[in-house]
Amino acid sequence: MNLIHPLKIGSFTAPNNLVLAPMAGITDSPFRVLCLKGGAGLVCAEMVSAHALHYGNEKSGRMLQVNPKEHPVSMQIFGSDEATIAEAAKNAEARGADIVDLNAGCPVKKINKAGAGCVLMKDEAKLGRL
């Protein structure tokens, strides 16, 4: 049995199922390129605040920069406001993201107090709209 195989997510297919998880402070562009060279089928960027992007935070904007050598790449956004998340997702797509992922699992209190991360799981209707 071959454990390494293509990974299909919606209409997207990665060449294999070796995925670099999004890790704050670690999965920057140079590290993602290195992991792809090492055989990763998909790399994920650090999660980015939809709120910070909305207000033009430069650091958050830089986190969405995609190097042409780092495809396929997934960008992860966190937030709780539908319009702000939609804006951030369009921003990530325009910058070259192959996949845009909404974080609904982060347990960090600072994120949760803002109504984002794993607290989104408490409101299935809202999560569905997001």
Provide structural commentary.
The chain is an alpha/beta fold and 130 residues long. The protein has one domain: Aldolase class I (TIM Barrel, Alpha-Beta Barrel), CATH 3.20.20.70. The chain contains 6 helices and 6 strands. The strands form 2 sheets. The chain has a 4-stranded parallel sheet. A two-stranded antiparallel ribbon has the order 1-2. The mean pLDDT is 94.
Architecture blueprint of SSEs:
Blueprint: E1 7-9, E2 12-14, E3 19-20, H1 29-37, E4 42-49, H2 50-54, H3 58-63, E5 73-78, H4 82-94, E6 99-102, H5 109-113, H6 124-129
Parallel strand pairs: 3-4, 4-5, 5-6
Antiparallel strand pairs: 1-2
Task: Name its key features.
130 residues, alpha/beta, TIM Barrel, two-stranded antiparallel ribbon, 6 helices, 6 strands
Across the major sheet, the strand order is: 3-4-5-6
Q: Tell me the distance between the termini.
A: 38 Å
Q: How can the largest sheet be summarized?
A: 4 strands, parallel
* Strand runs, count: 6
Q: Count the helices. How many? A: 6
Based on helices, strands and strand pairing, what is the structural class?
alpha/beta
Overall residue-averaged pLDDT value: 94
Q: Give the CATH level 1 class.
A: Alpha Beta
Order of helices and strands: EEEHEHHEHEHH
